[in-house]
Specification:
10 helices, mainly alpha, Arc Repressor Mutant, subunit A, globular, DNA-binding, homodimer
DNA sequence: AACGGTGTCAACCAAATAGTTGACTGATAC
DNA sequence: GTATCAGTCAACTATTTGGTTGACACCGTT
């Protein structure tokens, strides 16, 4: 990208390290976009480099290649786990905000779904916590907000399924609602449904 | 694959057409596997040809290339639409069989999810029916099996979300249940949950 | 001032990949 | 019997793609 004759801008004294960190960050940000959009197989390293306005060799330099970059991205996004652990807010509110977060910025969800499809059974889960935190659900069962007769693990999967659905089957949404998943009309109708749904998960009369 | 000297087996009289059809079929079957497993970008045409035990050129000959093959496959699998239209069986039974069909053979679901991720908003939906059949849901609302206060389109999406969840987030399943999504224990617990869930969608007392 | 290290890049390379070419086989039509 | 056509394939090609090489600029240290 740099013009032939023009010498590169000089990295200021203590800016050196900052530049390296900055490069890592912009690369990760670009990778986030590219991988969320096209998945691992569809993503292109030169495209990531272009989005980051950086030479593609730096992907190898800092992350050891496409796969290293992908792994780094994944492990970084593991923190973003959904646990419904948010005392003070109702389950319906938490579900709604999960849904809205996903509708406002589908990238995280898409990344998760791409990963799910590429998931191979029996693969080693190296360092990442091998157990899902269900305490947020269980706590709500104890307070009677959710029916304690229901399986907590199922509850979590079910709730997550509802919030990811618009990204998993956007075409079915389009055909069933007549509008895209990003349309306010869908948002409104589906939000109401999710809240209603959650309210039905309380203890049975 | 054929040995050098050995002449090819002669196509019998009326077998000619049958051979062409057969080639198309084995290619589509192989493509179904390959695309379901790796998605469009990850699939390899030489791999599809190998699975079909056929020269890869035939993919171009019969389908006009990788994309043509993919399109043909998609349009063929459109019939498999889920509509909950099955009078005589309860909604819980239908949901359960959707779930079990998916667990027994994930390929159709995976294909759908891959497609969902590749879905670009605003793209033309060429010939395929642009409206989702909701009559199966509405009918169940009229008989009082499902709450008629609920949005039919939402009901469909929600139900489908539940049945596809195991394939969309197999890693979360693994972490939440401690077993793979293919494990009988998961199947049992999750089936019970889905049935319970559906039973809660009836009219409120 | 020479040296070594870090951050960066342009140019190159090898493998993979989708697609093309030209040939061959046998059956049917003329 | 010759021409034509459908079906098939091995070998080839152009392009894409992830990755490597070698260089260079700038800084701090000796």
């Amino acid at each position: 990208m740099r013009e032939p004759g023009k010498p590169r801008r000089s990295p200021a004294p203590e800016e050196r390290q900052a530049d390296a960190d900055r490069t890592r960050r912009v690369l990760l940000a670009a990778a986030y976009e590219e991988f969320a959009e096209k998945g691992y197989a569809g993503a292109r390293v030169h495209e990531i480099a272009a989005r980051a306005n950086v030479n593609k060799q730096l992907i190898n330099y800092y992350f050891g290649g496409k796969e290293g970059l992908y792994r780094t991205l994944q492990s970084q996004w593991l923190k973003h786990e959904a646990t419904f652990h948010d005392p003070g807010r109702s389950a319906a509110d938490v579900a709604e905000s999960y849904l809205h977060d996903g509708l406002d910025d589908p990238r995280g969800t898409r990344l998760m779904v791409w990963r799910g499809l590429s998931y191979a059974e029996g693969q080693e889960t190296p360092d990442e916590e091998p157990v899902q935190d269900l305490s947020g659900i269980v706590a709500r069962q104890q307070t009677g907000e959710l029916d304690s007769g229901l399986d907590p693990a199922c509850l979590l999967i079910g709730m997550m399924a509802m919030t990811t659905a618009p990204h998993v089957m956007p075409d079915m949404v389009k055909k069933a609602f007549g509008v895209e998943a990003s349309d306010p009309e869908f948002r409104e109708r589906y939000t109401a449904f999710v809240r209603d749904m959650v309210s039905r998960l309380g203890p049975r009369p």
